[in-house]
Specification:
The complex is a heterodimer. Chain A is mostly helical. In chain A, helix 1 packs antiparallel against helix 2. Chain A is elongated, with a radius of gyration of 14 Å. Chain B is an all-alpha fold. Chain B contains seven helices and no strands. The relative contact order of chain B is 0.20. The model of chain B has no long low-confidence stretch (mean pLDDT about 90). The chains are: A mainly alpha, B mainly alpha. At the A-B interface, helix 1 of A face helix 4 and helix 7 of B.
Chain lengths: ~60, ~130
């Protein structure tokens, strides 16, 4: 199978965050403004949370 | 009477649930939520295709590996996407040595679980538990 997305850990994580955030924003909220608000909150939480966990794991590479 | 409420009344919840599982987003489209259904379809399909592209595993139940039961349930949640991918793939077990294998598995499991949530959501709308 040909890879359609470059192998970049941050890009893959960010794409995952975009898809999951968009999904739950559409599922849990009604109205454009409320959906964008939840999307932003989830997106920021996932990406910043991922970076925080990565930073905490830095001393333990294996 | 609005288009949505008319659709909800005339659709069997079981039919909606089965079609929502088979084709991501179709349940919401059947219930008159066309734009939301199309958006759900795009999100679930893109997530699933990314998982296949990352060479993730289309899980099957393995004896002695009880967690594969849960993973198989999740992957089969993608409905027709999973069935077609299994039919077309020459390696449904994924490429475990690929650097993106774990990502692929996460994407595939997530796509299936998202679609299962859509089935439950469509059921709630069809039965009037959710507006």
């Amino acid at each position: 199978m040909i890879a359609i997305i470059p192998v970049d850990h941050f890009l893959i994580m960010t794409l995952y965050a975009v898809l999951v955030s968009a999904f739950f924003a559409l599922l849990w909220r009604e109205g454009r403004r409320e959906r964008w608000k939840l999307f932003g909150t989830l997106m920021a939480s996932l990406v910043l949370g991922g970076l925080a966990v990565a930073w905490l794991m830095y001393p333990f590479p294996k | 009477m609005s288009e949505t409420s008319l659709s909800v009344r005339t659709r069997s919840p079981w039919l909606v649930a089965v079609l929502a599982w088979l084709v991501p987003g179709l349940g919401h489209v059947m219930l008159g939520r066309r734009r939301t259904g199309m958006a759900f379809a795009a999100i679930v399909t893109l997530t699933f295709l990314a998982g296949v592209s990352f060479q993730g595993r289309l899980y099957s139940v393995e004896p002695g590996q009880p967690l594969t039961i849960l993973a198989t349930f999740a992957v089969y949640g993608s409905g027709i996407l999973n069935l077609v991918a299994r039919g077309l793939s020459d390696n449904p077990g994924g490429a475990i040595l690929s650097p993106t294998y774990e990502y692929g598995c996460a994407y595939l499991l997530t796509a299936g679980l998202m679609n299962l949530l859509l089935v439950l959501d469509a059921w709630d709308i069809a039965t009037g538990k959710k507006r």
